[in-house]
Each structure stands twice: as C-alpha cells, then as structure tokens.
Write a structure and sequence with these properties.
The chain is of the alpha/beta class. The protein has two domains: 12-172, NAD(P)-binding Rossmann-like Domain (Rossmann fold), CATH 3.40.50; 179-295, N-(1-d-carboxylethyl)-l-norvaline Dehydrogenase, domain 2 (Orthogonal Bundle), CATH 1.10.1040. 52% of the residues lie in helices and 13% in strands. It has 14 helices and nine strands. The strands form two sheets. The chain has a six-stranded parallel β-sheet, with helices on both faces. The radius of gyration is 20 Å and the shape is globular.
C-alpha cells in the first residue's frame, strides 16, 4: 500500500539501526510507511534496505529531507547531538512543521536542549525512550515513554504503535527520559534482589527450578523473575541488555539525582556492583549477571 493510496501512511526517516532501531524501523516499513534510513555504518543501512525496502542515505540530513516524522535511536547524548545538529544533522534537512521523535535513552537535559533547537527551526520534538529490550523491539511489544506537547504526541502515537504495546505521554519534553530513569532504578533494584535470592537458594541446596516456579505465583513475581530467574540460576548471560548499557543509563540516573536532590543509595550501590562486573570482563553480559558477583563464577 502506498502513501498516496492511504493518507495515514506518513513519510518517515529512521536514524540508527542498532539492535533496537533495526527491527523498529522494520515494523514501520512493514506497515507501509515510505521510509528512509541512516546508520553510521553504511553497510548495516544497506542490509536493512535489502531486507525491508526503502532507501538508505549517507547522512542524517539526507535521510530526514521530506520526512513527516524523523525517528532516532542511537547510543547516548553525544551520539544524539552528532546525528541531529550541524550541517549534516537531521535538523538541517527537516522540513518546517515536521516532527523529531527520539528513542535514545539519554539525559532529560539533552532532550530539552534539542527541543529548543527544534523550536527555533520550526520543528517539533518528542523524547520517547523505550523499555522491552531487543525482544520487545523485534516483536513490536515495546513500552514507549514520551515527553512533549500533546499535539505532537498525538501525531506520533499511531506510528509508534507499530512497534509498541504501550505509548504514553508523561508530560512536557524531558518527562519521557525521566520516566525511563524511574524504570532503570526499578530494574536495577529488582535484579540485585533476585541475584541475592537465587544465590541464597543455591547455597541452601534448594531445587531452584521448583523455587522459582513457586515464588513466581506469589508476591515476588516480576518480569525479571519470569524472564531471567532460570537463566540466572543456570549462569547464562550471553544475551539481553548489556552491563555496559545499564551503567550508561544509571550514570544518567545518578547525575539527575544530584541535580534534583533525590536520594538513591541502593541504585548507587548497584551501579558499583555493575562496575565490578565490568572489571570481571562482563561488560557485554546481560544485566542479570549481578549474581556472578555473589557466586564468583567466571567464564
């Protein structure tokens, strides 16, 4: 189906085809949106086009030209600025009135900074970090936390829904990033508690398969327990959300806490536990590998 035959199919661009962005952009292509992609490693962009169609460009500016909505999912604040600002950045190519939706997990500060740049150019901006990991992106089941004007959110919501199970506006620009920080605080604490619980059960010589099955039916149930309990007990961590990425996210959390006065003693402690895992060579292990600090098992 073409955009001409279906006016609800907006022209879109997607910047950043990593583990998350690649399948997210794929869902937009499958939905029929005319799409142009950009990735710093051009061979990845070409591989995406070979799989899904669309067009690949060599700069973010070229990819953004003519798009109604430009989506972005890159690594951090500096990566984000590099694809948005400057002569080859997306803002330089975007048409007046178009919308930039940032799925990067970044700081609330950079979201507000880029929103100001966008406004001065007659563009709109939404910060929209996601939760659900690579499986959520592949299966189109992400949770998307948005900050921005209501009208801009309304324009983007239906398009984002192609790869999301929930798309929620939390407030003005920056609120999406702050919500993602709440998410990461919660995940870090849950994983440390689960690591201690499993290590305790193993030390007590319990059948952890049975234990996890039992407690998953009660008040201890959580996504982390259901999806990471068994693999933690089996010492399996070659998948999922990497320790290095979680440390980046917790760094954003702790910086924000310093600015707003929030007290995060457990989060700060778990951040240091993740630093221990990095020192053990586990930067690319799944975040559930916190248990290896307790068992001292290494590959």
């Amino acid at each position: 189906m073409s955009a001409a035959s279906n006016p609800t199919l907006l022209s879109v661009a997607f910047l950043g085809l990593g583990a998350m962005g690649y399948p997210m952009a794929g869902h937009l292509a499958k939905a029929g949106h005319p799409i142009t992609v950009y990735n710093r490693t051009q061979s990845v962009a070409q591989a995406w086009v070979n799989e899904y169609g669309g067009t690949a460009k060599t700069t973010a500016r070229q990819a953004a030209e003519g798009a109604d909505i430009v989506f972005c999912c890159v690594g951090n604040d500096d990566d984000l600025r590099s694809v948005v600002l400057g002569d080859d950045g997306a803002f330089a190519g975007m048409k007046s009135g178009s919308l930039f939706v940032d799925h990067t997990t970044a700081s609330a500060q950079v979201a507000r900074e880029l929103a100001e740049h966008a406004s001065a150019l007659g563009l709109a901006f939404i910060d929209a970090p996601v939760s659900g990991g690579e499986p959520g992106a592949i299966n189109g089941q992400l949770t998307v936390m948005c900050g921005g004007a209501q009208g801009d959110f309304d324009r983007a919501q239906g398009v984002i829904a192609h790869y999301a199970q929930a798309v929620t506006r939390l407030g003005e620009v920056g609120a999406g990033q702050l919500c993602k920080m709440v998410n990461q605080i919660t995940v870090a604490g849950l994983l440390q508690g689960l690591a201690e619980a499993i290590a305790f059960g193993q030390q007590a010589n319990l059948d952890m398969g049975k234990v996890l099955a039992v407690i998953s039916k009660g008040a201890a149930q959580s996504w982390q327990l259901d999806n990471r309990g068994r693999t933690m007990a089996n010492d399996e961590f070659d998948f999922g959300f990497a320790v290095d990425w979680m440390r980046k996210d917790l760094g954003l959390v702790l910086d924000e806490a310093k600015a707003n006065g929030a007290r995060l003693p457990v989060t700060a402690l778990v951040d240091q536990f993740y630093a221990d895992l990095q020192a053990m060579g586990g930067g690319r292990w799944d975040t559930s590998s916190l248990i290896r600090r307790l068992t001292r098992r290494q590959n």
